[in-house]
Design goal:
This protein is an alpha/beta fold. Helices cover 54% and strands 14% of the residues. Its EC number is 1.5.1.2.
């Protein structure tokens, strides 16, 4: 079902585009319904041409919409709040406008303090939304009724799986799902480097690393396997996989990945 409301977009960075592009390309969001605001005229012209949507440097252009996607950097949030208040004071009376924030670490309490008069939602999407394989965690502020919740769920469902989560769980969710693609990309790159060192051409090594990761994920999910079960399936006594796993354990890969997720979650809390 297409998104029915005009949507303002404050900040058109990588995450906002990752969410918008699949919706626009699939016709689930009309380009004429998007009102975006960015900091410079040059960026407005470039992104307007790239996306085919209305992009302006006038903040009121976006904040006047009944639904606003807030996608600036977390440290910019206080700078954009006055324009939101001005737009709200000029708006006709009616339904409380909706603010959907994708800012890492910015709590609902802070959103509601900075943007009074708006119903607030925290959303944590990840970049696989670009290929409609994303994951989005949602936490709801005060006064967001079920009809609006369903509207927001439908928006993010167009680009992947959507989960309602208690707000304290959003930090580890972000660490696993939003930072996780970078961790897995590093693993894929390293595996390909190893294959190149072993004699494979780099383009072939990269292709095989990507396909191996994709196939492994499909097998884990398709057969509902615990990762340990899959590890045991391909590890024969004194075999090649056992030799490789021994080296990974010796190098501390398991501990390094655990600490990477915990560090990303802690950084998300610090950003608040």
């Amino acid at each position: 079902m297409p998104w029915s409301d005009t949507i303002g977009v404050v900040g058109l960075g990588r995450m906002a585009r990752a969410l918008l592009l699949p919706l626009l390309d699939a016709g689930l969001l009309e380009r004429s319904a998007v009102r975006a605001v960015v900091a410079s005229e040059a960026s407005a012209r470039r992104l307007g041409d790239e996306l085919g949507v209305q992009v302006s440097t006038d903040a009121a252009h976006a904040w006047a919409a009944p639904v606003v996607l807030l996608a600036v950097k977390p440290q910019q949030i206080e700078a954009v709040a006055p324009a939101a208040a001005a737009a709200l004071s000029a708006a006709p009376s009616g339904a409380e406008p909706l603010l959907i924030s994708v800012l890492a670490g910015v709590t609902l309490a802070r959103l509601q303090a900075l943007f009074p008069g708006r119903a607030c939602v925290r959303a944590v999407p990840n970049t696989p939304a670009l290929v409609r394989a994303g994951l989005t965690g949602l936490s709801w502020g005060e006064g967001v009724g079920e009809a609006r919740r369903e509207q927001v769920r439908r928006l993010f469902a167009q680009v992947g799986e959507v989960l309602d989560l208690p707000e304290p769980q959003l930090d580890p969710f972000l660490a696993l799902t939003s930072s996780g693609p970078a961790f897995l990309a590093l693993v894929a790159e390293s595996m390909a480097d190893g294959a190149v060192a072993g004699g494979l051409p780099r383009p072939l090594a990269m292709h095989l690393a990507h396909r191996t990761m994709a196939g492994t994920a499909a097998l884990l999910q398709g057969q509902e396997l615990h990762p340990g079960q899959l590890k045991d399936m391909v590890t024969s006594p004194a075999g090649t996989t056992a030799a490789g796993l021994r080296q990974l354990e010796r190098a501390g890969l398991r501990s390094a990945l655990i600490e990477a997720v915990l560090a990303a979650a802690e950084r998300s809390r610090q950003l608040a």
